[in-house]
Amino acid sequence: MDLRALRYFVETVRQQSFTAAAERLNVTQSTVSKMIRQLEDEIGQPLLIRDGRQLHLTDVGRVVLERGQEALGVMRNLTQEVADLAELVRGELTVGIPPMVNLLFPPMVKAFRARHPAVALHLREVGGQRIEQLVATGELEVGATLLPTEPGLGLETRSVGHYPLFAVGPRTSAWAAEQRVALAALKDAPLLLPGDDFSLTRRVREVTAASGFEACIAAQSGQWDFLVALAAAGLGTTLIPGPLLARLNLGAELVARPLAEPRLDWHVAVIWKPGGYMSRAAQAWLAVCEENLLATG
């Protein structure tokens, strides 16, 4: 069976028009019609019923459409896999990394660039929840987020780091006298958190709801330094991961205390969708992440 004829048939059904299919395929309409007739002759049954401007699939046509799409998908994967033999010589990879966790990834980016200098590495910086969705739908092959991931997305994960979160706020905060801040101490505290598409905010909402209260979010921003500035202005308490705390100049007006809530630890992981095709560049990225973990573990 001619794969080109299958492609023309599938595209005609998709476009619901011989003319539109021909335009998409960069061929003449007569060529599309001829190839579909040849396919029908080879199968021995009609595949399409032409009713004015409408195209309707026959029972056989539905089967050919379904199996044809599968066959074309296999061929696309085959073509991609063959091309990937040289991809690490000239390729590209986009990795989704939330702005809130990107401070952990410079060693991985450096190692990847040193090993594969001809591969264009793009970093897509959006919230962790959005990255999970993009990886789950295949728009991104690999990314990073906070654990646990959204249930039901079926993502594979590999931990990059597990760190405590610190409550950071004015010295006048009700919890400032404590050595460790219990979750209950934040029940009535105005919180300064990342946007709703960030995994940390999702976790805060989930954990506080499980503890019987709703987080009181006073303001949101995707920038750590701005959240700290809001806290310094006396607007509330923000939550800062341990690795970032040492890099911030909190100033005399602020105090930081570790959270006494293990469910809100800052647990960063790389993620990918199992079971499907993964480019060699994405595989190389995961290998570099794994080696970096071994080197620092």
UniProtKB/TrEMBL annotation:
Residues 1-58 form the HTH lysR-type domain. SUPFAM superfamilies: Periplasmic binding protein-like II, Winged helix' DNA-binding domain. Keywords: DNA-binding, Transcription, Transcription regulation. The keyword Amino-acid biosynthesis does not apply. It comes from the Bacteria. It holds the Pfam family HTH_1. PROSITE patterns: HTH_LYSR (PS50931). Belongs to the LysR transcriptional regulatory family. This is LysR family transcriptional regulator.
